[in-house]
Amino acid sequence: MSISSQIKTLRKAAGLTQAQLASRAGVGLRFVRELEQGRRNPNVKNVDQVLSLFGHHLEAVRDHAKPA
């Protein structure tokens, strides 16, 4: 699942509109719209702000299928 679709799923499960999510996360409505549509190469800090509302955060995870 892409980060875009995951955020959209979390938002809908929480019963929030895009405008409500933007306001609560402290980001712009345009950011949320473009993020959910996958049309944006988002700033990691802003994505983390949005995810934090749902008790999630971004994390670097090693891909064990590839050599270090």
Write a brief structural summary.
The chain is mainly α and 68 residues long. The protein has helices at residues 3-13, 18-25, 29-37, 44-52.
Helices, strands, pairings?
Elements: H1 3-13, H2 18-25, H3 29-37, H4 44-52
So how many helices?
Answer: 4
Reported for the largest beta sheet, the result is: none
Helical percentage? 40-55%
Task: Give the C-alpha Rg.
Answer: 13 Å
Helices and strands: which structural class?
Answer: mainly alpha
> What order do the helices and strands follow?
HHHH
How much strand?
under 5%
Quaternary class: single chain
CATH topology: 434 Repressor (Amino-terminal Domain)
CATH homologous superfamily label = lambda repressor-like DNA-binding domains
* Unreliable residue runs: none
Average predicted confidence as pLDDT: 90
Query: What form results from the Cα inertia axes?
Result: elongated
What features would you highlight for this structure?
single chain; 68 residues; mainly alpha; 434 Repressor (Amino-terminal Domain); 54% helix; 0% strand
